[in-house]
Amino acid sequence: MKGLLTIVLLILSNTFMVFAWYGHLKFSEWKCFSKLGLFAIILISWGIALFEYMFQVPANRIGFKENGGPFTLIQLKVMQEVITLVIFAIFTLLVFKTETFRMNHIIAFLFLILAVYFMFKK
Length: 122
What we know:
The protein is mostly helical. It has helices spanning 2-22, 38-63, 73-95, 103-120. Helix 1 crosses helix 3 (73-95) and helix 3 (73-95) packs antiparallel against helix 4.
């Protein structure tokens, strides 16, 4: 149960982080945000990132082996990176419709999934 909860929290966390890191790139298309300066964009992104931390910190505390969770620190990090890339890929396809994924991108993702497999292999 702790493993599944950790993964769900990591997915939520990374969803907010992708929006904080890349969502502002679409602000110019939205009238209410189009004239904001860089400092305002940074503050908005920090506000979004606050929610990322509200999920990331509990995910790591619940999932970490030394706190009674099922994962080592390295396993948590590798899972987090793969989750970030999957969410980023989905975000890119849905929000930035001009971006395309090519075969080399798919192969790179497969290698990352293999990295997770080898991370958990005893």
